Amino acid sequence: MSTAGLADFWAVEAELDRRWPETVIEPSLKRIAALVDLLGSPQRAYPVVHIAGTNGKTSTSRMTDALLAAANLRTGRYTSPHLQLATERISLDGTPIDPGRYVEAYREITPYLGMVDAAQTRQGEPALSKFEVLTAMAFATFADAPVEAAVIEVGLGGAFDATNVADGAVSVVTPIGVDHVEYLGDDVLGIAREKAGIIKPASIAVLAQQPAEIAAVLLERCADLGATVARQGMEFGVLDRRLAVGGQLLRLQGLGGVYDDVFVPAHGVHQATNAVVALAAAEALLGAGGDQQLDIDAVREAFAGLRLPGRLERLRAEPTGPTILTDAAHNRHGARALAAALESEFALVSPLVGVVAVMREKDAHGMLTELEPVLNELVITRNSSPRSADVDELAAIAVQVFGEDRVLVEPRLDDAVERAIELAEEAEHAGGVLITGSVVTAGEARTLFGKEPE
């Protein structure tokens, strides 16, 4: 793309950043409903798989997208937040739209933004948020393409998330835990009720395995609305999981039968869960069930070609140097899954030095507690976000968990990574470096190692 085109893209980003941020929630669907109504309700132009949950949403979204594409559907995918570039959020046929199309999508809806903002101002209420505008851009882009199915990831919560103006034919709920306590609170059942809000009347609800009390909340919502239920561990599940080079080999029970020898190039039990949830979601949308399966070769091909950037991703693997990994874990639940995957699949990468930068509102103590058993040493740093935790405050928490002799501080992420590499190289056999703590941290790690947005 030309320099002028990129200038237009960054100008649009600057305009969007002047709106109230997506990390702030003002619970209402009024603004986004008014906007999509003016746009002609583009979110109703295609069937939707709507995905909520605490962790695993983006991985499950990418997997579902790949499976639907393998069934020869033209797909749209909307996910958040992005790792490196905002265009990652809006994908067509599995590929992020280019900056030029992003600019076009924004400019096409700009007149309608002004109308909604003006109406809100007259009523003394907030204007549209950045996330609401991005959501409308995605819906309109998919309708214009046009796509034959869209996979839509919830931004934050569920019932009052801007994406919830879409009526998912299939509603997916990935594992639920505590996150975004400043907006959703720390009552996990309250969080479950908020996320259950995406389940719509007469839809198919695909539910990942949950603790019993959370499952009860989700099932109550399904019963109230007459939604058909498909539950991991009941109607579908992981029958067998074996480690393989570069990922894992799965035997999956889908809604339509058993799928053998499915290679998934992703690590950890949590990714096996995401895979079978995605399979059930794709089956539900495509009408598989009973004795009707998806084409097994298409399923295998879809999973084998999967790309999950920032999800226990190898950024560098050299025979004589440390392996460099990054993961976007940003809450205690995610850190626990990451630690389990490292322990089971990367135990030979030793010593493993962590580079950690988290957002200040997160449960840093909980995250570091989960990671402590799998990290030999820790380099505390910060990322470029203004929400990044202060390094000295984060280091003080780290010392409580790791002890003073295992914690170092480097205020710049690039310096922290270099320091961690040096520490890993001091071992007799070069170990590895894990860069984690937030989506922003993982994205900036990808950029440091020359990875393109995808």
How would you describe this structure to a colleague?
The chain is globular. The strands form three sheets. An eight-stranded mixed sheet has the order 4-3-2-5-1-6-7-8, sandwiched between helices. A six-stranded mixed sheet has the order 12-13-17-14-15-16, sandwiched between helices. A three-stranded antiparallel sheet has the order 9-10-11. With 454 residues, it is an alpha/beta fold. The chain has helices at 3-17, 30-38, 57-70, 99-122, 130-144, 181-184, 188-195, 212-225, 269-286, 296-304, 332-345, 364-371, 391-402, 413-425, 439-448, and strands at 48-52, 75-78, 90-92, 95-96, 149-153, 170-173, 204-207, 228-231, 237-244, 247-254, 257-264, 313-316, 323-326, 352-356, 377-380, 407-409, 432-436.
Structural class: alpha/beta
Assembly classification = single chain
Helix tally equals: 15
| Global Rg | 22 Å
Major beta sheet, strand line-up: 4-3-2-5-1-6-7-8
What would you call the shape?
A: globular
Low-confidence stretches: none
Strand residues, percent: 15-25%
Helix content: 40-55%
Total number of beta strands? 17
Through-space gap between termini: 16 Å
State mean pLDDT (0 to 100 scale).
94
Largest sheet properties? 8 strands, mixed
Structural topology:
Elements: H1 3-17, H2 30-38, E1 48-52, H3 57-70, E2 75-78, E3 90-92, E4 95-96, H4 99-122, H5 130-144, E5 149-153, E6 170-173, H6 181-184, H7 188-195, E7 204-207, H8 212-225, E8 228-231, E9 237-244, E10 247-254, E11 257-264, H9 269-286, H10 296-304, E12 313-316, E13 323-326, H11 332-345, E14 352-356, H12 364-371, E15 377-380, H13 391-402, E16 407-409, H14 413-425, E17 432-436, H15 439-448
Parallel strand pairs: 1-5, 1-6, 2-5, 6-7, 7-8, 13-17, 14-15, 14-17, 15-16
Antiparallel strand pairs: 2-3, 3-4, 9-10, 10-11, 12-13
